[in-house]
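Structure (tokenized):
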């Protein structure tokens, strides 16, 4: 319970693009504010659940850092509802997210003048809506330049809610939202979308990798698999490891069939899960100590060794990804596989030669400058912006 309380009281940052200010607030205040605005637009969430790396951190007895922090808001949409009703509900959810962002902005900037389109361009990193027979949900990824992903998921139904057993935990937060001070006396429900919560706990404590039906995971879980391996996890079923890798590679290349989408996905994963460094200042993943972290602490000076560790982890990740694709890809022609391997090798080389530019804090903003990735296709005369 102390870990869960520390996560809910941890300060999270939503960085604005350009000269827009950084929003800094406690996670529990973000949840409360969003629930209030959802009620104002007549959309009720059945409950609120903590998911992702933060949920695994709370469930585990080990001490480790985490980058991804997901909040799930289950919502109700009647099966008989037509497309217009469904659209109205998701539009209302979108409005509640933007109202929450506007309310949490600093009071001294005249925030009432900013419309929703402006807030979307400034504070939202990714916005997705999926509506099929098996999936009906939307996602808002709040912009954070330090690799500290904050994702809000509004789910009516979702066929696949986890990648591996160690990230399948969902923690019900409702008992704590009104009276966090008395959390030690309350009971909290932890469930695992993997199916067997005890086995998932065993995998988490023993640092084992296991999943079911990897071909159903978007991207096959390939990048997360390699990330877990370099963090010291190992396969729960070593005899099935090569078969698992083949499934993951096949699904990855189905979802990302061309080099541009592959490189875009890879670079976004590196930025989102390994943090960002700038010439002596590092912005790493959330602290595993459970202590409160403010904006000053998030821009503390890093030692040279910590920079080397971060860079080495990225390089090890890329080299492991290279090996897995090289040895386990059966769905591509040889030249297609070689093109993907060359792309990974090029990204690794750029990482090893990367020069860090100090952030410009002269304007008073603690947000590092955004960068744009350009891609030069073969036999092309112009560069194409990717991200």
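Design, position by position:
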């Amino acid at each position: 319970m102390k870990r869960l309380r520390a996560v809910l009281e941890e300060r999270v940052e939503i960085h604005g693009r350009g000269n827009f200010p950084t929003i800094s607030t406690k996670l529990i205040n973000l949840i409360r504010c969003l629930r209030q605005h959802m009620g104002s637009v007549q959309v009720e969430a059945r409950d609120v659940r903590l998911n992702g790396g933060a949920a695994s951190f709370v469930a585990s007895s080990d001490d480790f850092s985490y980058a991804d922090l997901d909040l799930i808001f289950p919502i109700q949409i009647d099966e008989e509802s037509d497309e217009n009703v469904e659209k109205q509900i998701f539009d209302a959810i979108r409005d509640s997210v933007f109202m929450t962002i506007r309310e949490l902005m600093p009071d001294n900037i005249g925030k009432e003048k900013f419309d929703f389109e402006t807030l979307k361009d400034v504070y939202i990193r990714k916005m997705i809506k999926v509506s099929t027979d098996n999936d009906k949900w939307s996602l808002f990824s709040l912009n954070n330049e330090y690799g500290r992903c904050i994702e809000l998921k509004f789910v009516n139904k979702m066929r696949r809610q986890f990648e591996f057993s160690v990230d399948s935990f969902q923690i019900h937060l409702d008992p704590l939202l009104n009276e966090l001070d008395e959390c030690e006396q309350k009971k909290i429900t932890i469930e695992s979308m993997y199916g067997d919560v005890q086995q998932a706990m065993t995998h988490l404590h023993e640092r084992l990798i296991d999943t079911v039906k990897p071909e159903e995971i978007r991207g096959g879980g390939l990048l997360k698999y390699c990330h877990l391996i370099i963090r010291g996890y190992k396969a729960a079923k070593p005899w099935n490891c090569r078969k698992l890798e083949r499934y993951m590679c096949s699904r990855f290349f189905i979802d990302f069939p061309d080099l541009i989408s592959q490189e875009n996905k890879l670079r976004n994963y590196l930025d989102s899960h390994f943090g960002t460094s700038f010439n002596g200042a590092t912005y790493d993943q959330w602290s595993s100590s459970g202590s409160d972290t403010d904006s000053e602490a998030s821009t503390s000076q890093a030692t040279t060794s910590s920079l080397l560790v971060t860079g080495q982890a990225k390089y090890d990740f890329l080299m492991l990804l290279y090996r897995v694709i090289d040895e386990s890809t059966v769905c591509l022609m040889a030249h297609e596989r070689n093109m993907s391997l060359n792309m990974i090798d090029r990204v690794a080389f750029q990482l090893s030669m990367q020069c860090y530019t100090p952030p410009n804090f002269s304007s008073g903003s603690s947000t590092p400058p955004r960068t744009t990735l350009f891609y030069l296709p073969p036999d092309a005369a112009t560069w194409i912006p990717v991200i």
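Reviewer-requested clarification: The radius of gyration is 21 Å. The chain has two domains: 1-206, 212-277+306-357.
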